[in-house]
Design a protein that fits this description.
Elements: H1 8-15, H2 25-33, H3 37-63, H4 68-88, H5 90-100, H6 107-131
Length: about 140
């Protein structure tokens, strides 16, 4: 059975920090443990920052008439800082998001570690099957 994905409005609510209904609980875990979980997290943060950055641009460049180059440089530094902090606190933020949807504390990190370990073991088994002779250690 496929995981039920939220529609775009629910996803926006989720990107802005809202809790999804229980029917999307498995999708939240998938979102937090997929191989692309970090990219997804950064994209959610960028979506969160977009309206704020747009309002700042409108205020500074359009209404107040500041130089567009200076405004864009400032907004670029804001994006840099936002992504920097999103990356620093990504594990904690994603684990908290998963906990809010009914999973135990640090469950997403545990699942990611288990998936990474299983992948490592599968690669080692494939390597050994291909390159090692029978009875060789």
């Amino acid at each position: 059975m496929a995981v039920k994905r939220p529609n775009p409005l629910w996803w926006l609510w989720y990107a802005f920090g809202g809790k999804l209904p229980n029917r999307y609980r498995e999708w939240v875990l998938h979102d937090a443990t997929a191989p692309t979980w970090l990219v997804r997290h950064v994209l959610r943060r960028l979506v969160f920052m977009a309206p704020i950055l747009s309002l700042l641009y409108l205020l500074l460049a359009v209404i107040l008439g500041y130089d567009v180059t200076i405004v864009l440089l400032g907004l670029g530094l804001g994006i840099y800082a936002g992504v920097y902090y999103a990356l620093i606190f990504s594990t904690h933020s994603v684990d908290t998001r998963v906990t809010r949807h009914g999973y135990p504390d640090d469950y997403a990190s545990q699942v990611r570690r288990a998936l990474k370990q299983a992948e490592r073991e599968a690669k080692a088994a494939e390597y050994n099957r291909h390159w090692r002779q029978e009875g060789e250690t």
